[in-house]
Amino acid sequence: MAAPKRGRSASAQSKPGRSLALILIAIVALTGGMFLSGHTTPRLGIDLAGGTSITLRAVPEAGQESAINKTNMDTAVEIMERRVNGLGVQEAEVQTQGKANIIVNIPKGTNSKEARDQVGTTAKLYFRPVVTTEVSGAAPPASPSPSPSGSSSNGDKATDKATSSESPSSSASPTSQGRAVTDALKADPTPSTSASGSPKASPSPSGSPSGAASGNIEAQYAALDCTSEAARATAGDGAKPTDSTVACGQNSQGQWQKYILGPAEVDGTDVDEAQAVLDTTRGAGWTVTMKFTSSGAKKFGDITGKLAQSQPPQNQFAIVLDGEVVSDPSVSQALTGGNAEISGNFNQQSAESLANMLSYGALPLTFKEDSVTTVTAALGGDQLKAGLIAGAIGLALVVLYLLAYYRGLSFIAIASLLVSAALTYVIMSLLGPAIGFALNLPAVCGAIVAIGITADSFIVYFERVRDEIREGRSLRPAVERAWPRARRTILVSDFVSFLAAAVLFVVTVGKVQGFAFTLGLTTLLDVVVVFLFTKPLLTLMARRTFFAGGHKWSGLDPKSLGAKPPLRRTRRPSAPVETKEA
User: Which of 199, 305, 311, 406 could disulfide-pair with 555, CB 3.0 to 4.6 Å?
Assistant: First the structure.
């Protein structure tokens, strides 16, 4: 059994070129992928590349000052992070500052304007019945009571999928806001009628204001000028979901309309899922589909059932997003399917933006922008330069130590460091577009710390080889006998480093995660380099006379290492043979 074992060992020693060829192929493949992807440099974080910094201040609604608390602020931070990440913006930092402020840092090179809209938009969605509406700037009606002539709607309908059998040519066109919410986009421009064919009586909608509230709403409605940006920003401020309110919305002709709306019957929390979809079958273009929760589907069916019995414009419901009407479709029957679709003048970006806000939920608080500043990379660049100088000095000291102490062996260590650096650079460049990894200052620190971890692995192996030579063995057997012992030590050491990096990545947030991620990545690469490059290269070098002969500059001179003479077996003196005398 001993002979086969020696044969396998000899075979492994004779083919170290396989491991070197494997790591060479991996480097070439990764480098080729880096150039093909067009990302030849690592992606930089905001502290190195610059970007936009936004300060948001929480504003409580009337009588709800206690809503600004740690729980709601943490929830807002989580929702903002999901929204920004949903746009593909990576390395964005969202964190609280003080009791009522949130700081959002968006790296340069991303759509900062869209990201600003996403993080600051409350995304409070309500479905409110329309009491009356008209183009802003037109003569107001004598009273907000419904009449067919008082409606500015163009006859769009919200219908149930089960009843849809119309061709695309009869599907609903955009509403006065350029969008329609339907189950099947079926249009029916005629008023709802009873079984006898006569128009149904228009019941008074439950959301119509009355008494003093009615007079107040009418006064607000009469004074509202939706062509003014300031008026639009304050329209309906302070109104609770259970109150009637006024609002503005823009129609497909670009005109601003004003509305009196009843209390909210359905809100955004009743929307279970929203998704941007390109509808090519009906030619509707980009749409946003919504799926209601079970309770939301019931409430939506109830309100559409009530609206279907009313005359225009009180058979319409307004979809109100953050106080602005985005659609006001009319209803001819109860919609009980639990699904709805917003369609109209969407492009891909606007559809995905709205679906993103609806999917990730409404913020628990209203936020106002206190400041928006552009962060330059000058400070980060100076710090990066100082860090790289420190890293270069540290690397130079390591190289000088290796040259002085290990002499010829330092060539193997330096070559291994260069291979590890090349792999780290290429992988970081590829991880930018792949997972959004961005190199920040702590990540640079992690890469510098990794120099010591990698050098430590070489030192462990070299010292094991030297120990074998001190025991009187020649170089080639010493290289193979030292490897199992050094391998165990290297694996244990790297496992501890990787475990520390993983724990740090999990329990920390923000830039510290960049340090942990880089440290863990370089620790894994250290194992790869030692196994596939350092050990095979030392095996090859052990066959060279310079190293095998123990040259004084090889770092493996037996005399300078204090090697023992080769062990030789000596025979024991044989015991004297006793003879028996005759």
Answer: 406
**Residue 192 pLDDT more than 50?**
no
Distance from C-alpha of 515 to C-alpha of 55, rounded to nearest angstrom: 26
Q: Read off the amino acid at residue 578.
A: E
Q: 315, 343, 377: which is closest to 150 by C-alpha?
A: 315
Q: Structure pTM?
A: 0.56
The pairing of strands 245-250 and 324-327 is parallel
**What is the DSSP pairing of strand 245-250 with strand 51-59?**
unpaired
Q: 66 exposed, middle or buried (CB, 10 Å; 0-12, 13-18, 19+)?
A: exposed
Write down how long the chain is: 582
Task: Provide the β-strand partners of residue 285.
Answer: 279
Q: How far apart are CA 21 and CA 25, in angstroms?
A: 6
Question: Which long-range CB contacts under 8 A does 78-82 form with residues at least 24 apart?
Answer: 79/360, 79/361, 79/362, 79/363, 80/104, 80/118, 80/119, 80/363, 82/360
Token pair belonging to 439: 């190199």
The Cα 159–Cα 562 span in angstroms is 93
Give helix 409-435 / helix 441-470 axis angle, nearest 10°. 150
pLDDT per position as a tens digit, 458-476: 889 999 999 998 888 888 8
Cis bond upstream, residue 313 (ω within 30):
yes
Unique residue bearing structure tokens 């390395």? 91
Interior angle at CA 278, CA 276 and CA 282, nearest 5 = 130
Instruction: Say what the pLDDT of residue 200 is.
Output: 36
Alpha-helical segments (H) within 192-323:
211-223, 229-234, 294-307
C-alpha to C-alpha distance for 492 and 267, rounded to whole angstroms: 55
Q: For residue 93, give the H/E element and its range.
A: strand 93-97
- Residue 240 carries which DSSP code? -
What's the Cα-to-Cα distance from 279 to each of 157, 180, 291, 369, rounded to whole Å?
Answer: 18, 14, 17, 36
Residues in a beta bridge with 52: 106, 374
Tens digit of pLDDT for each residue in 339-386?
A: 877 766 678 877 877 777 667 666 777 788 888 877 676 766 777 788
Q: Nearest 5°: phi and psi at 50?
A: 85, 175
| CA–CA distance, 239 with 323 (Å, rounded to integer) | 10
